Structure formats: structure tokens, C-alpha cells
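re: ur question from earlier - yeah i can do the single chain one, its not a big deal. heres the input i used so u can compare w yours
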Amino acid sequence: MRGWWREISGLVLPVSCGGCGRPRVELCEECRAELHGGVPRRVRPVPEPVGLPVVHAAAAYENAVRAVLLAHKERGELGLAGALGKALAGAVRAGTGHTGAAGPLLLVPVPSARRAVAARGHDPTRRIALAAAGELRRGGTRAQVVAVLRQRRAVADQAGLGARQRQVNLAGALEVVAGGERLLAAGRVVLVDDLLTTGASLAEAARAVAAACGHVPAPGGGQAAVVAVSPSAFEINRNCQ
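and the output i got, formated as C-alpha cells:
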């Protein structure tokens, strides 16, 4: 019900820019440029967790990008999913260079906790992933969302936890739903999330996918893409290229 009301209210109520608050525009040109204007690049958190896939990010998590992600995730400004999906699609392309010839790209979103989805009224990462898949298809790349990951046990709130604490908190927390391994075999898997902080969530997602598919995840194995990453990681990798 909450998600339905947000969808309707977004059509009839006055809007303001999700990035800077400018009235009567959902995302102004300046904030859109901050989200889409950079070059997606490979990023690595420090320290890098074991089993983390190769991750590409569209932007640094600061200023307008941070505001837009929070507006979508926490305030339910669902119309921003399209712009965020476009940014995520750019990060996917940067990491895969995929044309679809060997099968579709399978975007596998990292799942939010059920209590978080219930509190927000929507699953932000899945919504952004769906928008990204649509953007990729419009550009000629076969892509679809395969939401086969789920939490197998409760985890603590990640806020305030350090890198090592997050890894311990998430270890063994995800699994692929029954029959999901058959869906994953139909194309090239790209794990997706809205934000990379320590990398613990993506490393755990990679472990769960590897376990379901019957192989051991290797450091740097597989592909992942995110909308944003901490500014320090984004700048470090800007300077390395």
C-alpha cells in the first residue's frame, strides 16, 4: 500500500530536484550531469574483501549523487530510478563491454533486508536494476534482472560497522533461491547494488552465486556494478588510470 501511494503521489504532488531541492523539477540538469557526466571506472575498497568481484562505479558518493540516492532509497522518490538506472547501466557497460552475442547480461541485485523493504515500501536496488536493464536493452544489449538472491538469516544494521565487522555480519547470510542456478546459467552474471562501501555485501553475494553454481569464487572473479562508491575509492582509481 505504501509503495502504491508513493507511485500516485509522485504524479500529482509538486516535486523538487532530488539532488539540490530546486523546485518543480525531479532532477535538474546540473545534478543530472553530476550523476551521468563522469566516466565509470573500476573501483576497489581498502581493505578489499576476499572474493570481491571486479566492480565498476558510475560516480562518487558525494554531493548531488549522494542526495539523489538517499531521496530514492529513504524518501521514496521513485521517479529517480530512471536516472539512477542509466548511471548503473553505464557502470555495467564499463565492466562488461558486452554486446549480448554470448547470451544476455543477467543483472542480479543484492537484496535488501525484508524489514528495510517493508519500512521503505520498496526495494531500491531492484528498482534501479530494472531501470538499468531497460536502458541496456534500448542501447542494443540484451539484459534482464534475475532477482535470485535472498537473505537466509537476519543480519545486524550495517551502519556504524567497520569493514571487518561487516564481513563477519554478512558471512553466509545470502543464498540463491531454489532453481535460481538454472536462471544464472542462461547468461553472464553481473551483481549490482546502489552503493559500494566496504565491499562486504558484493563479496557475500559473489560467494552465494558461486556456491549455487558449483564453483569457488576467486579474488577479482566475476563482475559487479554500482551507481556510487566512496569518494576516496573513486579518486584512487581515477588516479590509477
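The chain has a mean pLDDT of 84. not sure if urs matches, ping me
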